[in-house]
């Protein structure tokens, strides 16, 4: 019986988890990456806050510093993602994995990571700007803006799906990596690909619980502040753990899928049928 998108996602998540369970050091990358990203963004945004405190009229200064902080956060996230992808590649071959090995690969790719971070941030800003401008018009324009952002985000997610593994394994520049990603998907799965297996579905319950705890704390903030703070703390921890776990699973999955798409290699406990059905093709009428 052919599995649906969610079923395929769960199956792929299990195979990805088997790899991580055998190489737990892979989890260090999203954990340390999250911490480093927050620190980098905070340090880059801090001067803007300092200027605003000195002169409240200079609110515009938050824009350039905000963009700088967003770029720093994006760069750090990509840096650690490339390191994770490099180690996932070793793990899939049964080789020894260490944080140092992944970090060394990412450091050697600093230039291409910096370039891709700029591309990634620019695309995201453009999509958000389009939606914001159309939303201000209200009515049909606002709906149209939301649709454009959703479609644009999905299309970009598919087109750039293999960029991180390509940066890690091949060290191509941003333009070449994007072209390679698109070409790889077309060659293996054909035209009309509209999405990939929902591997993140396994962490969705935890994320829902975390959000419920955080919002539930708001209703208790006045009547029972200590309990509200505890709920927020637990919610944040659960949310962060779910995101870290999901990003680790996705990284292993993408590397395994890229290797299969590029040369037909099936490794790490994955099955060919799993990988072949990883992408969802547009239904033909």
List the keywords:
about 280 residues; mainly alpha; two-stranded antiparallel ribbon; 11 helices; about 0% strand
What does this structure look like?
- The chain is mostly helical and 285 residues long.
- The protein has one domain.
- Helix content is 76%, strand content 2%.
- The chain is built from 11 helices and 2 strands, in the order ααααααααβαααβ.
- Strands 1-2 form a two-stranded antiparallel sheet.
- The two termini are 23 Å apart.
Q: What topology emerges from the helices and strands here?
A:
Elements: H1 5-22, H2 28-54, H3 62-92, H4 99-108, H5 110-135, H6 139-159, H7 163-170, H8 174-189, E1 193-196, H9 204-220, H10 225-263, H11 272-276, E2 279-281
Antiparallel strand pairs: 1-2
Helix pairs in contact: 1-10, 2-3, 2-10, 3-4, 3-5, 3-7, 3-10, 5-6, 7-8, 9-10
Overall pLDDT level: 86
What count of helical segments does DSSP give?
Answer: 11
How much of the residues is beta strand, in percent?
under 5%
Unreliable parts: none
Task: Write down the secondary-structure element order.
Answer: HHHHHHHHEHHHE
Question: How many beta-strand runs?
Answer: 2
Radius of gyration: 21 Å
Q: Which structural class best describes the helix and strand composition? A: mainly alpha
Q: Main β-sheet, in a few words?
A: 2 strands, antiparallel
End-to-end Cα distance, whole Å, is 23 Å
Numbering strands along the chain, what is their spatial order in the largest sheet? 1-2
Summarize the amount of helix as a percent range: over 70%
Number of domains: 1
Q: Give the CA-based shape.
A: globular
């Amino acid at each position: 019986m052919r599995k649906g998108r969610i079923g395929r996602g769960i199956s792929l998540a299990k195979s990805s988890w088997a790899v991580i369970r055998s190489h737990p050091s892979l989890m260090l990358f999203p954990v340390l990456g999250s911490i480093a990203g927050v620190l980098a963004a905070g340090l880059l945004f801090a001067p803007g806050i300092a200027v605003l405190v000195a002169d409240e009229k200079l609110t515009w200064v938050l824009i350039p510093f905000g963009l700088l902080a967003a770029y720093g956060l994006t760069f750090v996230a990509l840096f650690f993602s490339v390191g994770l992808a490099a180690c996932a590649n070793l793990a899939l071959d049964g080789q020894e994995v260490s944080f140092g090995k992944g970090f060394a690969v990412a450091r050697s790719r600093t230039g291409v990571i910096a370039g891709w971070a700029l591309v990634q941030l620019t695309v995201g800003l453009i999509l958000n700007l389009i939606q914001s401008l159309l939303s201000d018009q209200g009515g049909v324009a606002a709906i149209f803006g939301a649709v454009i952002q959703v479609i644009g985000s999905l299309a970009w997610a598919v087109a750039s799906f293999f960029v991180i593994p390509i940066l890690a394994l091949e060290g191509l520049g941003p333009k070449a990596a994007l072209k390679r990603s698109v070409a790889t998907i077309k060659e293996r799965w054909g035209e009309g690909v509209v999405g990939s297996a929902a591997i993140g579905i396994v962490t969705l319950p935890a994320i829902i619980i975390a959000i419920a705890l955080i919002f539930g704390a708001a209703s208790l903030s006045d009547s029972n502040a200590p309990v509200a703070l505890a709920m927020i703390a637990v919610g944040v921890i659960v949310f962060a753990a779910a995101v870290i776990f999901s990003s680790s699973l996705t990284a292993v999955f993408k590397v395994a899928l890229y290797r299969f798409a590029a040369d037909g290699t099936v490794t790490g406990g994955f099955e060919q049928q799993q990988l072949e059905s990883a992408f969802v093709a547009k239904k033909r009428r």
